[in-house]
Amino acid sequence: MPTPEEIQQLRQLDRDHLLHPNVVLGEFEQAGGTIIVGGEGATVRDIDGREYIDAIGALWLANVGYGRPELAAAAAAQMRQLPFWSLFYGWSNVPAIRLAAEMARIAPEGFNHAFFTSGGSESNETSIKFARLFHVRRGHPSKQIVIGLQRAYHGVSYGAMTATGLERVREGYAPLVGAFEHIPGAYCYRCPFGKTYPECQVDCADELERAITRLGAGNVAAFIAEPIQGVGGVITPPPGYYEKVREICDRHDVLWIADEVICGFGRTGKLFGIENWTVRPDLISCAKGITSGYLPLGASLVSDKVYEALRGDGHQSLNHGFTYSGHPVAAAVALENIRILEREGLPARAAALGESMRAQLLALSNPHIGEVRGKGLLIGVELVRDRGTREAVELAPAVELACRARGVILRALGGNIISISPPLVITEAQAARVVAVLDEVVRQVCGASGRAGQAAQ
Ligand SMILES: Cc1ncc(COP(=O)(O)O)c(C=O)c1O
User: Is the shortest distance between the CB of 260 and ligand 1 below 6 Å?
Assistant: First the structure.
């Protein structure tokens, strides 16, 4: 344990030297942050010895939980054997080969090739580049536009950021990359078309066809979407949405990229999120849960159709690669992580426990919990003034802070949505505690704001 002086010094160094993503810099200089030093299962511990239930899996990724000795051993053994060798120019390494074969085994049928990266943004960059190259190699170089969804999050590198449909992520970084478009997604609780499922016949998916027609099918390369939007609000398309997307993409020779960076590796109750629907995409971007965050790794999984085009006539080079593509230590950890996910049946556990948590949240009859959505242990809770009007209560950040003070880490998405995405090993008792704390805090925070509002009127 560090001494109180060392803790003080660390806090100062953190404020003085470390640039943190997504903080108000001036506020951080004053207040600093919480320093996490350890974890076990679904709990983490801060530098002052306070314990928390990590109900967000750090950043939607600690799927097998903290403190897994097998993963530490896999990394150490591979570091001793060979810390690094690249995949460039035909060089190879054993863990990368085994992991690519493993991905072909566990991915949806017809996905037999994997391109490794170091994270989600790089995976999306890769999938987008491959989609464009697919059309070039097939003699349609004008098919360049990538259509994404409003509220989508695909990362912060230029291509991934431009594909992202959240304005706040892109603000200040113009000019963005060309040839990207955004359309409304399947946000049924607040339908952008003012319709109701199922009478709407999933009209939001037809918006993709309308966009392709407007832009000209000869100019559109790909459609990209998270099977369930994470950062945008755990927005969960209804049955039939991706089935329509598949038909539309096929009709217009447009590739479909599934961004499985959050959904993949068991979180939604299936190994891949898209397996909750009946159709399959052409490219799959993944990261996060592939190592449960123990090391940085991502992948773009390539369907046979796309592979055949990339291969071309057999004489063309694949000019794309990151230094760390197929890093042997990260690959060794991913192999062990997948073994754990399968051995312990964690996707099925996520399905059952997620179902139970959603049912518990709905059964609370908390007037400020408007909708509870998602699949498996990817859950979104929408905060409202009352269930009838669905008027949003923009107090999610206050709810997040109050839950943290009670030892439960949740995440506010924008103003009125709370996300829950714990390690898939969270116990039933811990899950029940998350529900109870959220209920209590929401009643307190949102109830108080309602009373304050009434008093002011
Ligand atoms: C759906 C999705 N795609 C891509 C990314 C970007 O991944 P990374 O931060 O590893 O670049 C994220 C990160 O949260 C994500 O949620």
Answer: no
Take atom 4 of ligand 1 and give the residue whose Cα is closest: 154
Q: What pLDDT was estimated at residue 448?
A: 81
**Residue whose structure tokens are 């060979």:** 82
| pLDDT per residue as tens digits for the range 159-178 | 999 999 999 999 999 999 99
Q: Which tokens belong to 3?
A: 């001494």
Convert the pLDDT of each residue in 441-455 to its tens digit.
Answer: 999 999 887 665 454
Give the Cα separation of 426 and 65 in Å (integer): 8
Bridge partners, 283 (sequence order): 257, 302
DSSP letter, residue 88: G
* Residue to probe by mutation, ligand 1, list 123, 127, 128, 153, most atoms within 8 Å of CB: 153
For 92-134, write each residue's pLDDT tens digit.
999 999 999 999 999 999 999 999 999 999 999 999 999 999 9
pTM of the model: 0.97
Q: Where do the domains of the chain lie? A: 34-64+345-456, 69-343
Query: Token pair of 399, please?
Result: 């709810």
Determine which helix (DSSP H) or strand (DSSP E) holds 305, and give its type and residue range: helix 304-311
* Residue closest to 444 by CA, chosen among 330, 368, 331: 368
How far is 369 from 416, CA to CA, in rounded Å?
Answer: 10
Q: What is the mean pLDDT of residues 278-283?
A: 98
CB 279 within 8 A of CB 108: no
Cα of 332 from ligand 1 centre, angstroms: 22
Q: Is 140 exposed, middle or buried (0-12, 13-18, 19+ CB in 10 A)?
A: middle
Q: Which atom of ligand 1 lies nearest, measured to the CA of 118?
A: 10
How far from 407 is each of 57, 354, 434, 436, CA to CA, in Å? 14, 20, 9, 12
Q: How many CB atoms lie within 10 A of CB 157?
A: 16
Give the mean model confidence (pLDDT) for residues 185-205.
Answer: 97
| Beta strands 378-383 and 255-259, pairing class | unpaired
Q: What spacing in Å lies between the alpha carbon of 5 and ligand 1's midpoint?
A: 36
Count the neighbouring beta carbons within 10 Å of the beta carbon of residue 8.
11
Domain 69-343 fold: Aspartate Aminotransferase; domain 2 (3.40.640)
Taking each helix axis from N to C terminus, what angle separates 328-343 and 69-81, rounded to the nearest 10 degrees?
150
- Tell me if the domain spanning 34-64+345-456 has CATH number 3.40.640.10: no
Per-residue pLDDT tens digits for 368-380: 999 999 999 999 9
